[in-house]
């Protein structure tokens, strides 16, 4: 078993209103089973999700539905937040890199819908049954550096659901459900790069993960906060507990004899 | 820019004492710049890191240096812990899948050292300047499913350090440092699979990430807990705060008039 990932050369600078499907279909040849990994930044540009850099802080606040953790550092405050798309990361996905001077980019409003529109367009233009993943670059708890993950998906199985299957020694793989979409996004980053200006990669040879356009999107990867052991930063949770404990002890009044 | 990942067929069941470098060199052809991604499980087997399944709970306790979070569920308690290797995950990496009946596997004692020994052996046997990554499958906060990550590395740049470089529009990429090793581990999972019995993959075409054997290993990916906003589960941090706040209020005594 093997596959190949190619960076797609020659994608021009994208502007609001551009037809991304036509641009991508014109830059590479697509076959049944190919999976496109597209940096969400160019989708944001095509969808006109651009605001003035001066409005960055306001944009972050506007995109935030929940503050998960904050950290003071020399350069200011980092806010780890859950954004409108349900993704947890720094600055709500509002990004100044690779955006036109004086502007910042917001994430697509509905990345799964954007991926579906792109996959639909590519399938119509090329006749090839392809899948689409929209990627973004995020930090993560416990580990330094960033990895690209899937924030949108269409026509791709985002998980390889092995629950109930047997391993090579015949034992059941009770909880194993590799996140194919995140692994593909990370794999594609290795040819796209941040500084190379290559926003699209094609994965060839993993057609077994391609499926219908109505498969669950990348939203299905997000764990609901109430089921998440790390739904809040450790300092924030401690502070909340401290206040609750302090208030409770005061409400109880002096210890009874 | 493009690369290819191949699953290496024909790796036999590994037993304690087996020479993994010889086994892998015999199963595929290696060239300068190739990167091997090896499931840590077969390294554990070769190193004899096998204990009786009856001793699983004790093994988890023995491998744990810090409990990060716990969750009660129908089947018992899930412990998310930091293990001796510094990796945060469920069950301290003690794993029953793909291990001989009645046994569980512990992670290699020092995965970076194991990776270095394997890379040294492979370079000596084949004459090819290859890199080695040892992978394991882990869940993560905020997102469902698992991805393979790098728990050991040798002869590979684990990060692509872009800090200070410019993006395509000329702006500095202040904090961008993609974790190449984790992305490679995830990319390789897509050909290895859990049920396929293919524990080794070769990445061809990314020789720019291959380097000397004394490059920092995967341990350098681990963020020290004191710098980690999610060093403790939200419930655990809340409970700790609650007790501290309660005790503090009691120590202060009744409110002064």
TrEMBL record, chains A, B:
Residue ranges of the TM segments: none
Keyword set, alphabetical order: GTP-binding, Ligase, Magnesium, Manganese, Metal-binding, Nucleotide-binding, Potassium
InterPro entries reported for this sequence: F420-0_g-glutamyl_ligase, F420-0_gamma-glut_ligase-dom
Span of domain Coenzyme F420:L-glutamate ligase-like: 11-205
rRNA processing found in the keyword field: no
PANTHER family, per database record: COENZYME F420:L-GLUTAMATE LIGASE, PTHR47917
UniProt cross-references to NCBIfam families, sorted A to Z: F420_cofE
Record-given protein name: Coenzyme F420:L-glutamate ligase-like domain-containing protein
């Amino acid at each position: 078993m093997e596959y190949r990932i190619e960076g797609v050369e020659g994608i021009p600078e994208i502007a609001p209103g551009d037809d991304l499907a036509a641009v991508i279909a014109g830059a590479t040849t697509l076959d049944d089973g190919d999976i496109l990994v597209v940096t969400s930044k160019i989708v944001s540009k095509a969808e006109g999700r651009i605001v003035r850099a001066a409005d960055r802080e306001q944009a972050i606040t506007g995109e935030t539905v929940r503050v998960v953790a904050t950290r003071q550092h020399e350069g200011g405050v980092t806010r780890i937040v859950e954004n409108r798309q349900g993704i947890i990361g720094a600055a709500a996905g509002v990004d100044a890199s690779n955006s036109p001077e004086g502007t910042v980019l917001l994430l697509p409003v509905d990345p799964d819908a954007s991926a579906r529109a792109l996959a639909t367009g590519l399938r119509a233009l090329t006749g090839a049954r392809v899948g689409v993943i929209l990627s973004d670059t995020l930090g993560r708890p416990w580990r330094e550096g960033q990895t690209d993950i899937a924030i949108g998906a269409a026509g791709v199985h985002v998980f390889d659901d092995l629950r109930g299957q047997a391993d090579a020694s015949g034992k059941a793989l009770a909880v194993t459900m590799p996140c194919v979409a995140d692994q593909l996004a990370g794999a594609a980053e290795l040819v796209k790069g941040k500084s190379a200006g290559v926003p699209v990669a094609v994965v060839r040879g993993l057609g077994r993960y391609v499926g219908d356009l109505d498969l669950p999107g990348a939203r299905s990867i997000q764990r609901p906060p109430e089921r998440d052991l790390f739904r809040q930063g450790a300092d924030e949770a401690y502070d909340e507990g401290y206040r609750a404990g302090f208030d409770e002890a005061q409400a109880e009044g002096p210890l009874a004899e």
